[in-house]
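pasting Cytochrome c, class I for the record, 409 residues
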Amino acid sequence: MRARLACPIVLLACVFGPANAQTTLTQGEYLVRAGGCMSCHTADPERPFAGGRPIPTPFGSVFAPNITSDRDTGIGAWTDAQFVRAMREGIGRNGERLYPAFPYTSYTLLSDADLLAMRAYLATVPPVRVATPRNTLSFPFDQRWLMALWNLVNFSPRRFVRDPSKSAEWNRGAYLVEGLGHCGECHTPRDWLGGLKQRERLGGATIAGWQAGNLTPDRVAGIGAWRDDELLRFLSTGAAPGRAYALGPMAEVVSSSTQYLTPADSRAMIAYLRAVSSVAVKDARVRTSFGRPARADITSLDSPGARFYAAACASCHGVTGEGSKPFPSLVHDGVSGALGTATTGNLVLVILRGVNRQTRDSHALMPAFGTQFTDEQIADLSNYVTAQFGDPRAKTDAKAVARLRSIGQ
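structre below
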């Protein structure tokens, strides 16, 4: 195996020279991280890039494939041309149509140099022999040939073209946000066939039950009121106190991807997002306009939710909900994305599944309570938390909790 792993490096060195070969691999690793490949293509942390992770969609689950250097079950036997075609056109090695759970609709913008650098790095990933599970899509969505029709409506193969009227920083940010980082794939709502609603681009969307935030400059629903340093901190640590904490899929994006971005690339993304069209959200309100600390004697309240909060949450977030380091305050949307909006999905999912967000500087960990509480109990707890600390319009019930519990199982 050692000789096989050395082959890509030897070949690169023969063509480009040792120094250039190492530069290509370093750049490829950076691009693979920035592109978020690890989070989707890793089901078992002990076997990175070996695939097998289910990607829930409204039509069933698509399993991310093995992209290690294994020649039989991974992409070790793929040619560069086959890799580039898959990334840019959504066509697999054997001519099969790929599903847009894989963001080829964004990767189509990537340059030749970046794609080949990514390919070179992935060729050095140790081979893991494991077949990808079969997708569980319902009929007719399990018919790959139908993707040709979907592409006619929703996909335009093209390369990124610099806008000479914009700064170098803006252009770099556009390349990262629209292409490599494929931010719109999660942060843009989709129509009933899974196509992106371009008029609401980056305006926020629901993905597998999680609410992905509004990335446009809207000052109430989006990031317009955020300072640059707050956005930089969020991208690098997943925590911007008073603004947002990365939860669910976004926590994984921070852990496996955005924390590794150079400061220059993070600033470029922010510069680009500052300039996109604002998308307002109906009935959105400034998060600090509601929510208040709880009374210290909440256990005396005639409220099942308050009692569940005292038993499960108060030891970290405080009886009043104001928290203490390292545990965030819940007042005024301290868990941002979970409170402060008229939806409860993120809060319920956090209670069900917990938080595990690890970066180079910190490790945010919250236990999952899904096995300890019934759906009705979680609904009671969520309704108490939103009424006390968040938007009192946000309510849920046991049926809604059950639906969220079932996603991805």
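Residues 18-34 form the longest helix (17 residues).
The domain at 168-275 is CATH 1.10.760 (Cytochrome Bc1 Complex; Chain D, domain 2).
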